[in-house]
Amino acid sequence: MASSLLSRTLLGHRLSQFSSSLTHKPLIFSSLFNKRQLCVQAEPTYTPYKTSGRPYRFMASSAIDRRTNFSMQSLSTNDPVVSVDWLHANLREPDMKVFEFIYGPGTLSKHMLSHSCYFLEFEVMVVMYDIMVLDASWYMPDEQRNPIQEYQVAHIPGALFFDVDGIADRTTKLPHMLPSEEAFAAAVSALGIQNNDGLVVYDGKGIFSAARVWWMFRVFGHDRVWVLDGGLPRWRASGYDVESSASSDAILKASAASEAIEKVYQGQTAGPVTFQTKFQPHLVWTLDQVRRNIEEKTHQHIDARSKPRFDGAAPEPRKGIRSGHVPGSKCIPFPHMLDASQTLLPADELEKRFQEEGISLEGPVVTSCGTGVTACVLALVLSLAMCSWSISTFMFNIYPYSP
């Protein structure tokens, strides 16, 4: 079950850095899913073994100086969340770069050095990129909150604003549906984002709409994207500074992104494109796929909305839309993934939430909600458990069989 998946996740973290490139200190690996750190230490031993065909990856951050020293704090690219402490530590470094170490398949020799840590001998590709921070705050209509105004009042230093409602499909009346590849590329290019950038996304509630933007980048082939665990509330509760005014450049970029989307849907040239998309169809489902799954049951279907909305006992927040749920789906409200501070629960608690509804983390899952926002919170958690998942972003209430 999930415990075996977590074991495989942690096994991928039990790697050390090249002895020829790094200082000889114990390497700390952060597993953000179970909120633990692993130090790869043991008695002297020598064990040759073969890797699988899947590359190993981890990420290290460092301020770059003439000696190009690496930080000993590493972060796996398999973990889709980062902590506020990690982000704060790296934001303080003006020349901070992120290094991604990609290990391909082959023979690895594991041996001990004087400092009693494992080192692995094999070919490694090092990719270096910058980190950008995105404020992706969005709120339900009945909350009467304005995300761009709140961004201008307080945001994490250097963050740009990502408009969830604006960077969306303009050919439908349904809210913030996934835009076309061309439209998404034009919008994020207008924000100044490139394919070699790493992205940390947060929102004003904790973990809410930031997960949606994380999923959008993943759908369009950009894997170097992380959600800030606890978002802006956790950042401020930790005593970290916020900027109380947005720069003119940030506001211009947010406006340019919206204009770029509009131009694409009007058939006009949007401007230089710095971001190339690579659509991942397995990460998004259509209404027809959901229909077929009712009969074929190839995927477990989880609904992220509240139980009253799922049961049809409470009205939907948008007028004229029926309550109820897709036949065969199960309800795991997204807030059940979070603690009181709106950060992710410990691994055992998350596993329990799925087990209680009979969801196997070893089987494929599709998640849905009202308009494709909170379903992404469940997908974020499933990604932490290395579960196979997709997101159904259709507005479920147009489904003809809903009660």
Mind explaining what this structure looks like?
The structure is a single chain. The protein has 11 helices and 19 strands. The protein has 403 residues and is of the alpha/beta class. It has 3 domains: 81-129, no CATH class; 132-266, Rhodanese-like domain (Oxidized Rhodanese, domain 1); 281-394, 3-Layer(aba) Sandwich (Oxidized Rhodanese, domain 1). Strands 2-1-5-4-7-10 form a 6-stranded mixed β-sheet, with helices on one face. The chain has a 5-stranded parallel β-sheet with strand order 6-14-13-11-12. Strands 15-19-18-16-17 form a 5-stranded parallel β-sheet. The relative contact order is 0.13.
Quick structural overview:
Helix content is 27%, strand content 20%. The chain has 11 helices and 19 strands. Residues 130-244, 295-385 form the Rhodanese domain.
Any descriptors?
403 residues; Oxidized Rhodanese, domain 1; 3 domains; 11 helices; globular; disordered N terminus; disordered C terminus; TST/MPST-like; Rhodanese-like_dom_sf; transferase; thiosulfate-cyanide sulfurtransferase activity
H/I helix tally:
11
Total count of domains: 3
Q: Gap between N and C termini, in Å? A: 33 Å
Give the name of the CATH superfamily of the largest domain: Rhodanese-like domain
**Element string (H = helix, E = strand):** HEEEEEEHEEEEEHEHEHEHHEHEHEHEHE
Measured as a percent range, the helix fraction is: 25-40%
Structural class: alpha/beta
Number of strands: 19
* CATH class designation of the largest domain: Alpha Beta
The spatial strand order of the largest sheet comes to 2-1-5-4-7-10
Q: How many strands, what sense, and barrel or not for the largest sheet?
A: 6 strands, mixed
Morphology call: globular
Poorly predicted residue ranges: 1-74, 101-124, 394-403
Mean pLDDT: 75
